[in-house]
């Protein structure tokens, strides 16, 4: 892909524009960047991370939504004005939502963030200390030290999220009037990492999940079958140990 893109770049004259902008072109067109081995590794990591993180998060969000029909109803009410404007394509046809249509839906995003708070797909993070420093907690760290922190635990700490930290409550992400998202610093909500290491695929992943959640909830009722053992799997990704078995029923919106 990199070699082909470099060839295409040579064939484009100065007064012509290449169609589309993507992460690969951004690096190749940067005159200060030439480490293609690093770029290749980064692109593969990005693709794998998106696949695993999105899949894992969607499992947890549909599990939580099945336990909270009031939240499902609120999301459907938020989707209603958009769905009413979409022309039906036939009896029983599904309503498919487009990225631009749901971009501004704040309650849907708040529900997604609440799932990521309690069930972060990467539950454990590690950092290597570059230079000696004193952390906000007062602990002294030295160059070369490795610091581990549990994002899963942080999402369930009263000192970070308040007395209702164990409650599944999307409203904690909303402003008082409910029309906008409340600002939450990335060092408090670490599901997408923080600072210069923040996930480059965050916006893509969020949009993918919002589209899937909106489309499934509008077209189907999701019922989690009883008798399942729902618990996280001990791994670098917070998968559901035994997966999730659900029953989908086509709804009449």
Automatic annotation (TrEMBL):
Pfam families: p450. Gene3D superfamilies: Cytochrome P450 (1.10.630.10). Signal peptide: none annotated. Transmembrane segments: none annotated. One of its GO terms (molecular function) is heme binding. Coiled coil: none annotated. One of its GO terms (biological process) is lipid metabolic process. It comes from the Eukaryota. Heme binds at residue 199. Its cofactor is heme. Keywords: Heme, Iron, Metal-binding, Monooxygenase, Oxidoreductase. Belongs to the cytochrome P450 family. This is Cytochrome P450. It comes from Triticum turgidum subsp. durum. The lineage of its organism: Eukaryota, Viridiplantae, Streptophyta, Embryophyta, Tracheophyta.
